[in-house]
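Q: Predict the assembly, please.
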Amino acid sequence: METENQLQSDKTYAANILSIKEAEHRIKPYIHRTPILSSESLNSIAGRRLFFKCECFQKGGAFKFRGACNAIFSLGDDQATKGVVTHSSGNHAAALSLAAKLRGIPAYIVIPKNAPKCKVENVKRYGGQVIWSEVTMQSRESVANKVQQETGAVLVHPFNDGRIISGQGTISLELLEQVPEIDTIIVPISGGGLISGVTLAAKAINPSIRVLAAEPRGADDAAQSKAAGRIVTLPETNTIADGLRAFLGNLTWPIVRDLVDDVITVGDEEIVEAMKMCYEILKVAVEPSGTIGLAAVLSDKFRLDPAWKDCNNIGIILSGGNVDLGVLWESFNKL
Amino acid sequence: METENQLQSDKTYAANILSIKEAEHRIKPYIHRTPILSSESLNSIAGRRLFFKCECFQKGGAFKFRGACNAIFSLGDDQATKGVVTHSSGNHAAALSLAAKLRGIPAYIVIPKNAPKCKVENVKRYGGQVIWSEVTMQSRESVANKVQQETGAVLVHPFNDGRIISGQGTISLELLEQVPEIDTIIVPISGGGLISGVTLAAKAINPSIRVLAAEPRGADDAAQSKAAGRIVTLPETNTIADGLRAFLGNLTWPIVRDLVDDVITVGDEEIVEAMKMCYEILKVAVEPSGTIGLAAVLSDKFRLDPAWKDCNNIGIILSGGNVDLGVLWESFNKL
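A: Predicted assembly structure:
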């Protein structure tokens, strides 16, 4: 039965366990195998054992480097030579710049004017060529299209791309090797690239593992999509988690729809509280989007739901660490 | 020749490779094996390969838990039952409280009134009984003596104690297993417990490894002691590195004198700059005392000294992560 499911998923989705294992092999020389941190204090607050997969320590400061690396090193030489282009609020942009630099090809990065300063600096540090756009997705996409036409660069979408999904999925391969007793994984959800890869890999290895998405209440398109049974987009989003404002794509949605067990939404206050715990207890700088898994595991919705009472060994993906210290300090003062 | 040296050190010093290996066996069930982080960005700034041993992720937020654990679990049951007492500005205090809690015995902690808030909170969180003293070492010692007389508790000195030195030395055993190519280790120096253990273990394993102490210019008693050939104490200290204000003890001094290759002093500005790099590039919260190894490796004194030009693979001990976010933010703004 599991084999059947797996075969089906191999056919149906934009990535599968084989493409994820290929990605692992392809990107291994370039990425960090990130460590797992744990804390008795947080375990006792949560009433479960928590294992933090620290993608904030990944190159470029976020998991995005895995997918970007896989995409860039998948390109044929002819394709690669003209470079890559993307539009992104930050972490994917920096990751793509860095991966392009490693391959020695140009990266054109369309960035909306309201992107966090530290993320823009990361792009520049890694040699990406910044092209500004307006904040709207329309403007971002049209500027990216224009660059693509002018340069012949390959568009690498931040999440709606099988190579990206496969790259992000390598996190599960590492996590389950590092902590084989994991029974649940909690993953931030935005466009769905991360959770798609993580879910495909984790459930191929162990179909009984539960994967839960964590989403900000002010950008809860995934929760609404799961409830409606179709992709729902929102007229606007409102959350401190700047990395979690995108909506599901046509490649990520089927995976989220079929394989993600549930979506847990949390408020910005809970996100900031989790960011504070990461800083004070784990001693790790985690950006708002990156702490949402911890916020979810501490939320009443998760704690009190009998469906999750057997979740004892929980992997939490701290997805990124790019947060301006001033922003962190201001948020803490608002608590 | 090396064997002779080692035999001599076995006889002469308060700890040795055997006591350190015993400590490792004793404390293994309780401590975190802390991860190594590295960063291409920092490597390229430093012009060497840097390997950060993240003791900021140790239980209690600092390496001190290793020594405290070794001391507490070395006690016979009769001794242990009356508890332990110490005076400490913070990390040793929290570590001793936590280790005592694990053994189920009381910990009496004498803390000077100017200790950082987050460190005092750690002591309380781990169940230590706080007893306040004045800031001076005289007051701290006399209050601790009084508590000892009243309770019969065993005094566990923060650094001038073979059990403590042996516990801290376990860092080298892990570090050299994790990164066998290490040729140099840079270690914060204060009372000398950490560097004594680290040096004894590292040089027993590989006598050609260089060990350098990193010390704040405003509390440079170790540099002055090495220069004078005897323990020098200072009338006062002035540094942001609150964990590095103690002076060498009679058990740590001979080890520092004979085996530590040099002392590199750095200013507070360099310490804060290193703290900023740890936060922004490594994504790790490191307290001022904990970042001094990075500050040292980036200092002109180290970079330009021909004696260290062959130091290519450098282990840097990020010794602790207990820093109030407000303090971090204020220091960054003063840069």
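Residues 1-10 of chain B have pLDDT under 50 and may be disordered. The interface with chain A takes residues 32, 35, 37-38, 40-41, 56-57, 59, 61, 118, 125, 279-280, 282-286, 321, 325-326, 328-329, 332 of chain B (CB under 8 Å).
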